[in-house]
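User: two proteins, same treatment. go.

Assistant:
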Amino acid sequence: EDRLARDMRPPMPTTGWSLLLLAAPTISIHRAGPLFPARSLHVQLTSTQQASISKSHCVPPICPPVTRTQSANTAQRAVRHTAPRMRIDQDVERWLTDNVGAVSLSRPLGGSGWASFKRYEVEGADRSFFVKTSSRPCDIMFLGEALGLRAMHASKSVRIPEVLHYGDGDSGGSFIVMEFLQLSGRADAKLFGRKMAMMHLATPLAEEAQQGKFGFDVPNTIGGTAQPNAWSDDWVAFFREQRIGHQVRLASDSRISKAWKLALQTTDDLHKLFDGISVKPSVLHGDLWSGNIASTGGEPTIFDPATYYGHHEAEWGMSWCASLGPSFWEGYRELIPKDPGFADRAVLYELYHKLNHYNMFGGGYYTDSLGLLGQLARLGDKKLEDVAL
């Protein structure tokens, strides 16, 4: 846990990340890559934060010079996509008007390769609304996110954006309507730790999880990677097959496959890592890194999840990129003490995310993944060199 508590923030991959200062006082942190749809986090800034960024950050252009041919192609694509985008916007306004009130203002908040974001003001409403729209169907784009947010929201612990609606548009495309949260930097770290522990201890919303099963109502995504969530009575089997095994198959790499096979052999198919502890289903955010953590009105908040019901320790697989400090762990451990073997299982849970990053980004995550597989193999008193890699 001491290792997880260190502020380890590796530089983001050089391919696929950009920081944009949008036309409203908003930062857009945008991720894109060859194997997954892009994702963006949009954060409303205070005037002080705007001034700080404008003074200290030089945001380079992210696009190469555009040729006349490229400009023409871009214009043609814009014409093709304008009508569907306008239709889905009309569907959003119709839903808001029918269910909340007349729309008085809509403000674009940028977008990504897979969705567009807007803030809506509605007459007579005491809050604003954050809406994502896409040209793709809801079951692909927003179903997993909506159900995940609702599962966490039901825990009544850490602040979760409330989902008001999600579904397909009348003329194609889909959208999700959430409450708009004015986000700022992290608040009280110890409070955040306690709130996360409360979420992990809460009675699960899903009946299957209440009965002791692991998984989720629907498949979803982790980053841009498909994440299977079929219900299972056995946590070890679930994580072995639907988490690590799934990522190993996606990697389709002989060295990774052989290292994984050895790790399974030396750990009795991972069961050795769970000797002496009881694992119960907790609702997990599933992708808890710094970009998905903020505060609103002084309350810790998390968003953009890859939710499922699993072992609470699996939440910390992204701790190497989450900056969870000693105060956080102090608050968390007040409610959930550390179980024996925590450090060994942390290797397993980090491996899932490192493999996923390798499948999305490539690069150094390959070496990281092999290193973690080696650590798992050595837990069984064997070395990775015992097989020809």
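Protein 2:
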Amino acid sequence: MAEAGRLTAAGPGMYELAGTVGFGDAARLLAEGDRAFAPLRAVEVDLARVTRIDSAGLALLIEWSLAARAAGRQIRYRNVPPAVTSLAGISDVSELLMGSAAG
């Protein structure tokens, strides 16, 4: 059985997204991220422990990026899995994550 997606604090303004990030968890993770990120001016989300991601997971990252822009907040994604980069390219949404991804 796949490990459910989870968002955990990893330090001030730093979070880790891990497990399977997809249709089953995207809505919950969106709400958790929105609550956690709201008081912050800058957020970094490490994706190194994401084991699987689908289009709903990509939509989650895009939603977080759009919400950050609307709130005047910076968000960066670190250790972005190749599957995310590939899915974003296929879906023609890479530009929505550009400037939000690092290492």
